[in-house]
Structures are given as C-alpha cells and as structure tokens.
C-alpha cells in the first residue's frame, strides 16, 4: 500500500480540505442529476460551483467549518461583492452534517437559524434537503 511521506503545512492542508469539500459537493450534485461546472478561478467572485438542470444556472459557494456545533456563527463573506450567489453550502469538517442556505444580507447569523436545510453527509439526505430549499 502506498504511504504518504510528506506533511502539508497547516495553511496548505486547510486549502486542500476546502477543495475536497467542493469536490464532494460537486459529486453530490452530479449524483442527483445536476450538470456541474467548476470555475477555473473564483477569486473574489465567491462562486465555487455552477449547477444547471439544462435550463437554469445557479451559483453555489461551498464552506467548511471546523466544528460539530450547528449553532455556530457564520459570517457573510459575499456582502461587499457584486456577486449574486444563489446558495451557500456549509459542511462540518468534524461532524456528519451540513447546511444548505440562501445567502443572507446581515453580517453574521447562527447557522441553524438561517432558514436553511440541515442534511447528513449522504446522497439521499443532501438531495432531499436541496429539493426543499
């Protein structure tokens, strides 16, 4: 079995982990029948994924949180941009859950009070939550 012999710096590891959640979300959408487009560069645009049903396109921002507490405060990181994202998906790095929410206009909110849909990191739960949002 191959063994990884190098250790990533903490900032590099966070970057890898962030991208892994973007890839995971893309696979959940594709498994649900969505077309998934990945911007070559999303710096400043806050769009990690674009999904489409063939007719309509939606911009999606993916965030991961280092917590198991779903009442954590989340910050509005798209407020002062001219980007119109449609959904924000938060994944817990330590728990088996996530939230799908609409972008909010205030500076911060409690994740579980955002009017979003909580899901377990499983295809069926994710698809059901996204259908309800």
How would you characterize the overall build of this protein?
With 133 residues, this protein is an alpha+beta fold. Helix content is 24%, strand content 28%. The chain has two helices and eight strands; from the N terminus they run αββββββββα. The chain has helices at residues 10-31, 123-132; strands at residues 35-37, 49-52, 57-65, 73-75, 87-92, 97-101, 108-110, 117-120. The strands form two sheets. The protein has a six-stranded mixed beta sheet with strand order 1-2-3-5-6-8, with helices on one face. Strands 4-7 form a two-stranded antiparallel ribbon. β2 (49-52) and β3 form a beta hairpin. The longest helix is centred in the N-terminal third of the chain and has 22 residues, at 10-31. The protein is globular.
Low-pLDDT sequence parts: none
Report on the biggest sheet: 6 strands, mixed
Head-to-tail CA distance between termini: 43 Å
β-sheet strand percentage: 25-35%
Q: What is the 3D shape?
A: globular
Number of helices, where a helix is a run of at least 4 consecutive DSSP H or I residues: 2
Class computed from helices, strands and strand pairing? alpha+beta
Average residue pLDDT: 90
Strand order of the largest sheet: 1-2-3-5-6-8
Q: How much helicity do the residues have?
A: 10-25%
Q: Radius of gyration from the CA trace?
A: 15 Å
> How many individual β-strands?
8
- The helix/strand series, from N terminus to C terminus, equals HEEEEEEEEH
């Amino acid at each position: 079995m191959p063994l990884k012999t190098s250790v990533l710096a903490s900032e590099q590891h966070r970057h890898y982990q962030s991208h892994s959640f973007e890839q995971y979300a893309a696979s959940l959408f594709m498994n649900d029948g969505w077309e998934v487009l990945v911007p070559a560069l999303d710096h400043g645009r806050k769009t990690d994924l674009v999904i489409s049903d063939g007719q309509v396109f939606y911009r999606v921002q993916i965030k991961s949180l280092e917590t198991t507490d779903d009442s954590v405060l989340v910050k509005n990181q798209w407020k002062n941009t001219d980007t119109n994202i449609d959904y924000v998906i938060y994944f817990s790095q330590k728990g088996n859950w996530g939230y799908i929410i609409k972008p909010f206009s205030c500076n911060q909110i409690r994740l579980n009070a955002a009017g979003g849909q909580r899901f377990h990191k499983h295809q069926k739960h994710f698809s059901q939550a996204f259908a309800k949002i």
